Amino acid sequence: MRDIYEKLVRLAKRRGFFYPSFEIYGGASGFQDWGPLGCSIKTNLENLWRNCYIHQEGMAEIECPTLTPYKVLKASGHVDKFLDERLKCRKCGRQWRPPAGERCPECGGKLISFTAGLMFETKIGRDVEEPAYLRPETAQGIFLNFLNLYRHFRKHLPFGVCQIGKSYRNELSPRKAVLRLKEFSMMEAEVFFDPNEEWPNFDKQKQKEITLLPSSEKHPVRLSLEKAVDTKIISSKPLAYYLGITHDFLLDAGIDPSKMRFRQHRKEELAHYAKECWDAEAYSDRFGWVELVGIANRTTHDLKLHSQASGTELSVEKVLKKPKIVEVLKIQPQMGKIGSLFKEKSREVKAFLEELDPEKAAGDLKIKIENEEYTISSDCYKVVRTREKVDHEKIFPHVIEPSYGTDRIIYLLLEHAYRETEKKGERYSILGLKPLIAPVKVGVFPLIRKDGLPELARTLDKKLKEKGVTTCYDEAGSIGKRYARMDEIGTPFCVTVDYQSLEDDTVTLRDRDTTKQVRIKIKGIGNYLKKELDRN
Ligand code: GAP
User: Which of 64, 75, 383, 419 could in theory staple to 309 by disulfide, Cβ–Cβ 3.0 to 4.6 A?
Assistant: First the structure.
């Protein structure tokens, strides 16, 4: 008996959802092509995501290169910490994920453990080849643009920036179709905020109940987001807020609510940049709980490390609600002494001392004036501790990151939508996809291929297309077979032109989920269908 995964892989290949990449050359594990229907679902999903994050949440979208210089990923910690513990067979060289036993499951050779970098290396540059990587996440491009984006948002926190695009990881991915790919698509948002400010809009989400599996528990609990924050299961409102947003998005896309949960990472599981992380997981018939979205608290990790490594400070000036008194170290030039020693060059010496970092000023100092070196003796300045009133301070914003894996979500949407029915001893498969996600929205058929029915059906098909409804015109085979073909790819509605249509300008409209048919007027059918499809 085939399981849903096998049935879906066959259906995907036959109808054009996804295909194994490079198949005619024997294929390559960890790569997957999206076919025509798969691409259409992907576009629909990305648009639903844009609608959520950009239109509703007010974020901005950017697009950065996938090739990334070595120094960027060295600074972010990926070069040294984005690693995979593996086992390698001494005899055949095959690699395995631990635990795989002491012997190679393929040839019986001895296995040795080693650490593999997860990024693909390459080179960039024209004259001098510099090392580089294919990006392992889209996030870094957003961090590097922090100052541009802060300006775009008129220097107000919080703000969020999204990126949709490909990322690359040199994963071991044996036979998992679209779940563990070496090249995959992500939809990521980086939300920059001041943790000392109240998180806006939490009230919109606080009563939402979701299923949580905290790292300290064996069994999931169902809690409102407010309760989860109050009991410190989720450590902050912004993090809880994006669990709520992710919950709604996945349900809108069609993930089965009874097969969804949020699981907290254990300490040892956390990525090197994360202080806390919750995965939105969906249950798969074959693979068990699968991570679809990671929602992480990245704190100031990336902005601070890129500031240090690049020399460009990725921080903001925060105006304080109340000015405060702070202790500061200051250099006080001793002008009497400086004047007697340096005469007309005193101004240069004073300016030099005032520019100096007081933490670093000690003992005699060297200064170059008009190409001549002078020594400023330690009695020319004092380092003093003073109290000053300040009305603004420099802060590194914190970051919450909801990061969605597009390919995995699509696979789970297909799995959760899949069902079967039997008619006259024949089995049929149906994809109960949400109308917003379905690749084709309406099937248009003439009952038979004569007597003017195809012409009328084609005219109707054209009208619907002009209204922006994605249709599929089909006149081949029995009407039952045509319905079955549409059910199998998740088409929510079918319209059939029959003899009565020629008399009273009506058609039958069939609903995929109820299989009920109603007669409706051709006039106004476009608007009617658009409304029904928007209902989702
Ligand atoms: N910037 C954060 C980040 O990259 P992640 O949890 O490593 O977080 C986010 O990845 C999402 O990307 C995952 O929840 C998963 O859905 C998807 N993903 C990660 N690795 C993948 C792979 N090898 N193949 C397909 N999807 C993957």
Answer: 75
